[in-house]
Amino acid sequence: MPKIVDRTERRREIAGALLRIVAREGVEAVSVRSVAVEAGLSAGAVQKYFSTKEDLFRFALDLTSEFLEQRWETLDRSGDLLDLLLRLVTEAMPLDEQRRAEVIVINAFTARAAVRPSWAEFIRTGYDELAEITTQYISEAQSAGHVRDDLAASDLADAVLALSDGFANRMLTSATPAALLPALETAIRTLLIQR
Amino acid sequence: MPKIVDRTERRREIAGALLRIVAREGVEAVSVRSVAVEAGLSAGAVQKYFSTKEDLFRFALDLTSEFLEQRWETLDRSGDLLDLLLRLVTEAMPLDEQRRAEVIVINAFTARAAVRPSWAEFIRTGYDELAEITTQYISEAQSAGHVRDDLAASDLADAVLALSDGFANRMLTSATPAALLPALETAIRTLLIQR
Questions:
Q1: What residue ranges does this record give for the DNA-binding region (chains A, B) (predicted)?
Q2: What ipTM, to 2 d.p.?
């Protein structure tokens, strides 16, 4: 009788192998063969789950959002909505191996999306979703009186996402990434607090 | 008598060819051979000017800073130091083919630097220099009373650079990049103006 394999779990293992390769060697080191070796499978087995390399990349990128959502679920919920937003942004910074790998992957995807229209499409969709969620969150924080309401929630959301991306990018090659945290916190607080 | 070639000019032509390849096909399409073809030279001629691919990349990256400096030189100087800073940041956004190519190149370099320690070193040096120049500029703007002085110039500089990077990144895959400009301007003004 054949061994029953959970299809979803196997897909996650394969995408996880892809993420490790990108974080270690860059996006150009990814091939069906290298991913199969990293996952301990045959090339044929990988192709059974992902018919094209692009399917595989798309699934792996979705996985990075999932990791962030998982951390969001377990986050310390004390303080007001601005404190919580600051903790969430800090969670996305490349301050340990796992988060560093995620930022490298997102960065490499963006660089490649710029020269591959089909990739640009799914990077854009991801950004748009994130902007919508962040706008909604800031709007609630405004209603609760935790964030200034004299500026549009969508403008504030765009700024918070840009700060998050920009600081994450800079930390990636910084010798002392954590030293940039106070500047990130100052920027977000200054931007979001009504004086 | 051999034709006299301006060595500096030839090096710039070769690096320009590399930038065009990265902007069009991504960093992984770069080889001594592809750069030689793009520049209309032999592989041997390219190697006469750049002994390693890394030398070539480093020079090409320096060239992107030079382009930004050239635009800075010709910028409209009206208004106060904050207006000028806003124009400079806007100049760095990928809103036409040339600037789009520069942002793609810097982005691709950063993605690769994350998995190549020797590249991280020169990306870091570039960031550090930019942070120093920006801090100096904001400090002057503070003395002139054009920018708030209740926050450290270095923290404000880190935030402006992060906003610039983050918005440039997002515009790269946005269907309507210019639509993000008002949010960028709001963020920088809100951050830098004393109310």
A1: 31-50
A2: 0.88
